[in-house]
Amino acid sequence: MPTDTPADGAQGATAARKGGAPPSDLELLVHGVGGTTPEEMLRDPRTCRVTGDETAAVYRRADEVDAEQRPPEDREGPDREGPIREAYVWCNLTSGNSSRALWLLLLPFMVANLAHWMRPPADRRERTVRTYGLFVRLVALTLTVLLIAGACEVALDLIAWQCAGSADCAGGKSWLGFLSPENHGWWSQPGRRLALAAALPGALTGLLWYLSNRTWSAYESSPPLESPVDESAPEAGNRPALCLPGFWYGRRIVARLRAAHTAAGFLTIAAGLTLPTTTYDRKPGGGGPQDAAGWALLTLLAAGAVAVVAVVCYRGRSETKVDGELDRITITALPGAALAVLALSVLYAGWSRPGWASTGKLPGNQAFCAIAIGEGALIVTMAVCALVLHRSAPGRTPLYGLAGPAVAVLACGLGAVLAGGVAQRFADWLDGGATPGEGPGIAPPVLLTWLATAIPALLLALVVLLLIFTVRVWQVRNRLLPTIMDGYPGERPDPVRTRRIARTIARAGLTDSAPWIVGPVALLTLLFGAAAVTGAWVTDQVPGRAADDAPGAVDAAAQTAQALGSWLMGLAFLMLVTWARRAYRSPAARRTIGILWDVGTFWPRAAHPFAPPCYAERAVPDLTWRMETWTRRHGGRLVISGHSQGSVLAAAAVWQLDHRTRGKVALLTYGSPLERLYGRWFPAYFGPTQLLSLHGEVRCWRNLWRYTDPIGGPIRLPDGSGPEVDCGALKDPLVYGRTPEHPLPAPILGHGDYQVDPVFDRERAGLLARLPEQTPPPPQEGAAGQMSSGRSSG
Predict the structure, then answer these.
(1) What is the pTM assigned to this prediction?
(2) Is 779 part of any domain?
(3) How many whole angstroms separate alpha carbon 484 and alpha carbon 502?
(4) Which residues does residue 52 pair with via DSSP β-bridges, in sequence order?
(5) Is Transmembrane a UniProt keyword of this protein (predicted)?
């Protein structure tokens, strides 16, 4: 087990070594997705934590804790002639304690947040960029409303209104007996049943607020290293966004959006209580004072909705500086006022109405159609903005710049599956398994059943796409077969071995075809969603009933799709719950699911405050602080070595360094998705222009990759300097057949084990040789404390 030791293991701040020798060199290792242990990264069972905590920390081999104060010959182990090696372990940020299993239920919010960062690069179109971000935030707001509306559908409509109001349904469920009108109890009136049931969606809203606030404090509150922007520097006028000091510190916008989304949740519940109540009060027999109170509440709800939208639209992120201020009036008054409106709605619904009886479905459940129409209109507007941006600066971006809108469609689809799946399964459970909408029993809104009916068709299209790509893999493999032996001259061909290598390369190439899956699935989701809204709005019947007068084949297909879709939608929700439960109990399952968060939560929460937290807002400042303080304290050369997602963190951290520190730092990336994935899907931040800027700002950079790697790839720079970064595709496997030196078959490494390739050590040594030789700095007092002045007030 790793143990702790004081930072750097130094007794003072001096960096001078014995005999006046040059200062030591350092390699800072950053692991990739899935996580690992410091023992595996450092290839030593004895490691010590030199700085950090249980969540993220820097480790060293036990015998290298104070290596800066000793000559290289005093070091032990196979790496004693190379640089000192440190490992930054950040996997606990995404797969640590069991509470992270609950993040699976926040998946639609995470996907919506990704859409914000997928916009095409801007070419002097700042207004269009701001408009794009605005509509992404509005789409994210509708997702919160949709989730809370789904909870209201279950608690208010299915349980409190339909089941508790039916003697047949409530009679078979003892836990609903006190709500049944047959008992003539105090809670038997519909308004009071609704008021009591509002506790469930209210608790869900409070839980979302708590998780967002808690994860901010635990993961994203680390202040970045503030280095002043040198306006006289050549790159100062056109710095990439990831260079800006406030990029990894979005405290203000997260707090403001959290207040707006929390208020939206409370107002959604209040609307679910007020709309059916005012509908009754406006009928003959309704009370005058009650009717007036209802109109007053509707006015408050409209004013609250306007205030929420205004806060969301007000402004986006502030990245040019570390913005530690908070809009305290907004973040306190807005959710507080919305909670007060909800309390008034509870009192209003609980007002005695002896003549009120609940029949049919809860009035106002057409809200799901309104939400779906609003989401569709917002996404179409996003797509227009994305096309304008793409036309102004075309580049190697997927789906002609429409990746962000496509991902937003998928986020809305996931939200509909969550909300609809819960409603469908609760309706089945309450109604004894009867098909929802096919009889007089318990049924969710018609739109949710239409959406469920579209799922089988969407899955069928996805299966067809997968079959097409399977055929493509087979074709590519056959084309590669004659070329495999070119990399192994003199070897005896083995058909089985050759086919395995060719198949691995063909499968790895599927990563570049991902847009041709995301695009069609998003388009079909949008079209099927529009068809579902139209069908529900026009017929007001479930598809099986709406097709009764159609030809027999159409009627049978509608019935089958409706039944199958209902179960598939519920099954999707149950699978999420099952995975979350398994991840809660099993650390191994949490690490597997953590891979999803490694990729999806790299970006700050710029659109949805209830998305899982951004681990890079902790990891990037950690790496920046470590590089800055170590080079200042010891004066040595440093190579930051990142694998897979770790290479993205390493690049982001290098961008945050000041010019003086970057002159002592080299970048080594391997299995890196910087250009292959991030450069294509997030072109405004990792596009060719930005990577070219990184190449010019860092002292030296080398990138290792393989054809068999499904994630990593080469770095293609627009000025043709890519070969200066890439060293060419590494051979994989390292040995084709059995040899005296390798009597057992060598594995196909793919995305892992880059450090076992001899090229790795050679390239690392070459990077250190290209860095200028450093001289020991003079002794300093409180060197580590000098950096604390750069902290912002957290």
Answers:
(1) 0.88
(2) no
(3) 7
(4) 57
(5) yes
